[in-house]
Amino acid sequence: DAGVIQSPRHEVTEMGQEVTLRCKPISGHDYLFWYRQTMMRGLELLIYFNNNVPIDDSGMPEDRFSAKMPNASFSTLKIQPSEPRDSAVYFCASSLGGGGRSETQYFGPGTRLLVL
Amino acid sequence: DAKTTQPTSMDCAEGRAANLPCNHSTISGNEYVYWYRQIHSQGPQYIIHGLKNNETNEMASLIITEDRKSSTLILPHATLRDTAVYYCIVRVRGGSNYKLTFGKGTLLTVNP
How far apart are CA A88 and CA A47, in angstroms? Predict the structure, then answer.
């Protein structure tokens, strides 16, 4: 299995621009998670989906952030408009869910976002 | 989820056992102890989890005290590739909450 795939791996943009991060979870996994990691705040959960439905978006910082999961194999995290404080590494993770070892979350390599 | 306390950093010699402690004195009866690690510039990686019995897998061993207020992750023969930040996380397994709440973790540096 290829694991969780994220694109792009690096993104540099200017303040005010729209940024779209993409994630392909592991095939068959029912849960998809978006995390953000910064030096100041560490690794924090933004939102997660179960069977393509958003379950908990309490970590989404503000209305500039939105996430979608149109199907079981694709999710996007969009920032519009982007600001310098959005600079961070964004991780996507997926899991089977349902208890036991299947709750293990598998993380992608991350997208390093720099907003100038 | 219960709060955890870990040392900020630790050193270990290559080939020796690395013992990483975690304090979770407010853990409740239905909360599991999970360990993940994050190698520099990579996403976090699951290591092991347990409820009250000691657990072992191909990566590590997890020792949980009888009162469950603390635990130790053991890497039996640390290698340079084990240099990473190790996160101890306490959470309820199953149910409707699949969140992982990461603290600051322990930076383990394995020295040659």
Answer: 16
Give me the torsion for CA of A28, A31, A32, A34, rounded to 10°.
-160
Chain A residue with minimal CA distance to B102?
A43
Phi then psi for residue A108, to 5 deg, are -80, 180
Determine contact, residues B73/B48, Cβ cutoff 8 Å. Answer: yes
- Give the model confidence (pLDDT) of B55-111 as tens digits: 999 999 999 999 999 999 999 999 999 999 999 999 887 666 677 889 999 999 999
Residue pair A23/A9 in contact (Cβ under 8 Å)? The answer is no
**CB contact, 8 Å: B43 with chain A?**
yes
Q: Across the interface, which of B96, B99, B104 has its CB nearest the CB of A42?
A: B104
pLDDT tens by residue, A63-83:
999 999 999 999 999 999 999
